[in-house]
């Protein structure tokens, strides 16, 4: 059942040696393409990195060497208005994509595509992991795989046969994210401490990488300082100028 598959998701970071075939990859990508897309622009592309040297370099740049070198397939999921530029040229027209709205459309399209790809892969028994680390050095990674103007990596995605079975990390309760008619922030005073206890219990009882930490502690530490401060400049060079 699809809902049960979705609720069983856990990131996989250790894979068996089996590589996905071209036929398997094509089947997964074709399924992923049936995700919803804003105004049918399909503002995404996927770079399948099969070259071993490029995978090694990608691992270094993203700080995820083990996954990039050991996965059954490595993808860069990219926002893409370059193809749409070519579409405009067929009609003698320059397209406009340097507005904030266009950036949101492309990133949303990539996210929907990625989730479809994840579901397709997991339905076949594969494990996956998103790699946000590809934004650690977006300029170098763009150069590594030849991404032109209008194209940038949003995240990586590794797929393969799991070599480990990870437990499902408890998510926030539904009432924490579901608001009816009006946004209710008062409920966080009780929900967040309860969720902290759930997460701390999970971390302390899991089979490996045990630790004592709460969700609010981790989020506070993570969001108390800026990250990847070069992205605005890098995106501007790609043509995304937030007009």
Automatic annotation (TrEMBL):
Pfam assignment, any one: Nitroreductase
The UniProt GO MF terms for this protein read: oxidoreductase activity
Write the record's keywords in alphabetical order, separated by commas.
Flavoprotein, FMN, NADP, Oxidoreductase
Q: Which InterPro entries match?
A: Flavin_OxRdtase_Frp, Nitroreductase, Nitroreductase-like
> Where does the record place the Nitroreductase domain?
8-160
Q: Which SUPFAM superfamilies match?
A: FMN-dependent nitroreductase-like (SSF55469)
The source's domain of life comes to Bacteria
- Which family is this sequence assigned to? Belongs to the flavin oxidoreductase frp family.
Known PANTHER family for this protein? NADPH-DEPENDENT OXIDOREDUCTASE, OXYGEN-INSENSITIVE NADPH NITROREDUCTASE
Q: What is this protein called?
A: NADPH-dependent oxidoreductase
């Amino acid at each position: 059942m699809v809902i049960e598959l979705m609720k069983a998701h856990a990131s996989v970071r250790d894979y068996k040696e089996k590589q996905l075939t071209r036929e398997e990859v094509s089947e997964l990508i074709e399924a992923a393409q049936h995700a919803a897309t804003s105004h049918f622009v399909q503002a995404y592309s996927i770079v399948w990195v099969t070259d071993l040297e490029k995978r090694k370099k990608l691992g270094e740049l993203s700080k995820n060497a083990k996954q990039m070198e050991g996965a059954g397939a490595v993808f860069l999921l990219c926002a893409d208005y370059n193809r749409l530029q070519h579409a405009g040229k067929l009609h003698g027209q320059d397209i406009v994509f340097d507005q904030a709205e266009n950036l949101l459309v492309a990133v949303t399209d990539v996210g929907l595509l990625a989730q479809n790809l994840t579901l397709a892969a997991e339905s076949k028994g594969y494990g996956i992991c998103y790699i946000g680390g590809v934004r650690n050095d977006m300029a170098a990674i763009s150069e590594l795989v030849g991404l032109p103007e209008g194209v940038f990596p949003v995240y990586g995605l590794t797929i393969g046969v799991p070599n480990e079975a990870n437990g499902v990390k408890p998510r926030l309760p539904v009432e924490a994210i579901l608001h009816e008619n009006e946004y209710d922030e008062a409920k966080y005073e009780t929900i967040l401490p309860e969720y902290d206890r759930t997460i701390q219990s999970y971390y302390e009882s899991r089979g490996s990488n045990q630790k004592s930490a709460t969700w609010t502690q981790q989020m506070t530490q993570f969001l108390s300082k800026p990250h990847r401060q070069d992205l605005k400049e890098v995106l501007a060079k790609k043509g995304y100028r937030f007009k």
